Amino acid sequence: MKTNVRPASSAVEDYLEQILELINTKGYARVVDIAQRLSISQASVTNMVQKLDAEGLLKYEKYRGLVLTTAGEALALNITHRHKLLTDFLQLLGLDERTIYHDVEGMEHHVSPATVHAIESLTRQLKRQPALLQRVREGAPVAETKAKQSKSTHSKAQ
H-helix or E-strand containing 60? Predict the structure, then answer.
């Protein structure tokens, strides 16, 4: 059995994400369900599922459900985490749901671990500092806003 040592493609990540979501919501994942969710043919899904099976990311038995292997589940959890993080971050910034959906679908497959970590840190800080979040949402440069606050505090002290 071969294991996936290359970075997963966007398509592989999309499949694994959908399979994990189906297993978590329905208790199982079938080719027909994946095809419906991804709006593609069952034949295309079957081809990809066979590829994922050969790469050791899932177990596939024709006419039965799919089971993620440990490696497949780890990849699926990783992409699910990135998807949720990016969605939460963009929601925090006040973007509309349609923009968030399209941006997350475009970004989630191309974000490096270092960037994910930075976005996690920034999201935590924005949640802890509502005034900073408000300034970001309003588009005020943070340094300029801090300078105004400093002047205001300084002039009140005089």
Answer: strand 58-60
Give which of 88, 70, 67 is closest to 19, Cα–Cα: 67
Non-local (6+) Cβ contacts of 48 within 8 A are 11, 12, 15
- The Cβ of residue 92 has, within 10 Å, a number of other Cβ atoms equal to 15
Is the Cβ–Cβ distance between 29 and 73 less than 8 Å? no
| Per-block mean pLDDT, blocks of 10 residues, the chain (158 long) | 58 94 92 94 94 94 84 95 96 93 92 95 95 87 56 55
Instruction: Say if residues 34 and 22 touch (Cβ distance below 8 Å).
Output: yes
User: Which pLDDT score is estimated for 112?
Assistant: 92
The pair phi, psi for residue 66, each rounded to 5°, is: -110, 145
Residue 57 contacts residue 12 (beta carbons within 8 Å): yes
Structural domains of the chain, with CATH = 10-75 (1.10.10.10), 80-139 (1.10.60.10)
